[in-house]
Amino acid sequence: MKIIDRYLSRQIALFFAMLLLVLTGLAWMLQILSMLRLLIQYNVSIGGFLGLTMMMIPFIAMLIIPFAVFISTMFVFNRMIADREITVMMGAGLSPARVAKPAMAFAGIMTALHLVLGIWMVPATQEKFYKKQWEMRYGLAHLALQEASFNQLADGLVVFVNKVNDRDVSGLMLFDNRNPKNQLVALAEKGKLVSTVRGMSIVMANGSVQSLGETFVLGTFDSFDMDMNISDKQIKFSFKTRRISTPQLIADAQSPELFKKSEYKMLISELANRFLMPFMNLMLILIAAVVLLRTSLLRRRISIAPFIATLGMGASMGLFMTFSGIIGSFGELAILAGAQFIITAALAFVLLRK
Length: 354
Fold this sequence. Notes:
This protein is of the alpha+beta class. The chain contains 13 helices and 6 strands. The chain has a 6-stranded antiparallel β-sheet with strand order 1-2-3-4-5-6, with no helix packed on it. β4 and β5 form a beta hairpin. α10 (261-275) packs parallel to α13 (330-352). It is elongated.
């Protein structure tokens, strides 16, 4: 029996690993293509860019694991049925539940891994991803001012510097025409680039400023701190639940009055994805085992069994994603968890019955 268990486990694990690597690699390449703007427009190094995109791999893997688990299990079972290996095993007295035991053990391992990814790794890497992306776009990390040339930092914002020494600049001229009704020109002997919570700021010293709006203003200054507001002009901040740590997410979900209705629904939906989605691995393997192994007992095997199993997988995942996206309270979350448990238990009962 242990030989059969090792054989089935090895076949499923090898095909799963290959499938996970291929699908994750493809999704990662698509992520790289969608983020090429960072590499081109913001002068980000290739190493920093690849490091940023690799932070998305845990999230990508979390989405792919249930599908890879199902496909690998269905492929192995269907191949073994076609080669009459399952028929021989059952002829030797093994029940469908016994044949499916290695697959269920593998599903348990993947469920635990999925929980680790969803509860800990994905929130941690997503927080780093969004922080790093913001720094590359709007912090000093992306800024490479060229000496003795005009540098366009944003539409309508041009800076000329004579000398650059790390964050210190000299011979500075700044032209800000982002608001045509309030044009600004500043000249300074020297300046310093600083990073703030709003993005980049230039602290200029010993210079003059001209402002042309409804009135013309001309003056001199010893020190002039100009907030570039680049982030305000080029980014729309959104409510990202993936970057919230799990303890904080649970605490936030207990205070609905602090959030908009749409934001609170996103919090509950994220809880469902972190705590309930991993158990879809068990449900999907049960679907594959019930459909393929049970039909293999028939005298005339159903040739469309893989298609039926795939439809069951698609319906299960589609319903879960739909309902996890519309629930808006802990009560509805409990109902979804209960429905998931009942369906999984029913599939297990069908597989175990003689």
